[in-house]
Amino acid sequence: MNPTSATQQQSEYGVVVAPGTIRFERAFPGPVERLWSYLTEPDKLRKWLASAATEPRLGETVDLTWNHSELSPHAEATPERFKQHQGAKSRWRVTRYEPLKALGVIWDEGTDAESRVEFELVPRGSDVVLVLTHRGIGGTETLGDVAAGWHIHLDILSDNMSDRVPRPFWSTLLAHEAEYAPRLRDDAGRR
Which of 2, 16, 47, 146 is most exposed, with minimal Cβ within 10 Å? Predict the structure, then answer.
């Protein structure tokens, strides 16, 4: 891990760092214990990502339920192409669990969509940098969808941690999708 130094300008956008791999580096208000709680405590995880019945622990599985329309109080209709995802289930198997430092999971283990996600927390002054790396994403279109999805989820995490009303989910997601298409083309051209 090599988080952006304090002197470098940090972008909120994910960057393709290898084929099928996107990385985000975002600063959140500290302390590190607070950010860790949003990654591991079910009542906080559901506020920005998905509902989970249990806390992640090394070697265990965590079943997630996706209720995107509940992440923001802004009422928006679910776009038709996303309706099948409302209430959808997925599963994490926890492969790394270092309290206050790192959480790693295999996402949808044993399926065609299996991938790996790592959340690493790096204290920096009064902030905490979250380095999120998602590996094993298939295809450029899927990479764009995953990038836009993580971007809005991290936006909503930021809103929650900064005590702001979470922004609208669907309209912000669609805007991020449009922003990522040229960014991913540029990233692919530089590699």
Answer: 2
If one counts every other C-beta atom within 10 angstroms of the C-beta of residue 30, the result is 16
Q: What is the pTM of this model?
A: 0.90
Strand order in the sheet with 51-52: 15-18, 21-29, 127-135, 115-124, 102-107, 89-98, 61-65, 51-52
Indicate if the pLDDT at residue 3 is higher than 60.
no
What DSSP assignment string belongs to 20-37? Answer: TEEEEEEEEES-HHHHHH
The residue ranking higher by pLDDT, 4 or 174, is 174
Nearest to 23 by CA among 143, 105, 172: 143
CATH architecture of the domain formed by 15-177: 2-Layer Sandwich (3.30)
Domain ranges of the chain: 15-177
- Using the 8-state DSSP alphabet, how is residue 8 labeled? S
Give the chain's mean pLDDT.
89
Among 35, 34, 33, 15, which residue's Cα sits nearest to residue 25? 15
Q: Please state, in angstroms and as integers, the Cα–Cα distance from residue 26 to each residue in 92, 113, 141, following that order.
A: 22, 25, 23
